[in-house]
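[09:14] KT: can someone run the structure on this one? pasting the chain below
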Amino acid sequence: MESTPINEVRRIDDDLYVITETESVHCYVLVGRERALVFDIGYGYEDIRPLVHQITSLPLMLVVSHGDPDHALGCGWFDEVWVHPLDWGKVLANDTYDLRKRAIDYRLHKMPQLKGVIDETAFLSRRIVGTRPHFLYAGDIIELGGVTLEVIHTPGHSYGHIMLLDAKHGRLFSGDQVTVHNVWYFNSSDEQAPFAQAVQSLRSLLARRQEYSSIYPAHDIFPVGHEVIEDQLYCFEHELAETYMDDVPFISFIGSGYQHRYRTCELIYSDDRLAEWLGHSIERLGAGA
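[09:31] RB: done, structure tokens below
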């Protein structure tokens, strides 16, 4: 199966493939008898539809876990996208020249071998405005023919973050919220839900742990197990309050905050978010992030 310098294609199982954009974002391809589904689409540095068509000739359905640019800017390659309504505005708000310019500059700095491979002019000029949205809600069922997916609404990393549960095969596709990669929580409350909602989402996932054994995140290693959820919960509910003073600043082209690590859990958060969770102001030695 052919890949490109931008996107690597790998087979996981007969009905499951992953296309990894720029060694960073996993876009999962689930293949049923009647249609196929792409879960998350990356920045869209190139059109991945030809790569998907290597896997299947079935009609394609694009679903995005949430509206962050590394999951949804690629929507512009598709005529339709399925997304939770709370994150559709986020998809569009991130679709700007300025953000695209920062994204391409960051990627080419990190992977200079892609200079001249990515069509920068096309990437900067593409827009999602022509892509028609369809809205998904908690409990919705997606039938692909032999593959059935349940939409699980997991507010936290974003208000409209969703996961897809394939209970028949014991798989949970978790987007950004359950991963050993860093999870960002440094944006303001109009973009990202309070820690309390993230904790409730994680508790709800653990309550259904018997329905899945393999978790497929959008970044880093896959699959992961239930311990990733357990570590996040313990971090939020106990460990973070005790050790946050040891955390170090974190800066990215999107924003900045503090970096906190606990076992498989890595949080990037703001002091405003932490103060809201702990119920008191945060004071640190030296300048804040």
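[09:33] KT: thanks! The CA atoms of residues 6 and 193 lie 32 Å apart.
[09:34] RB: yep, looked fine to me
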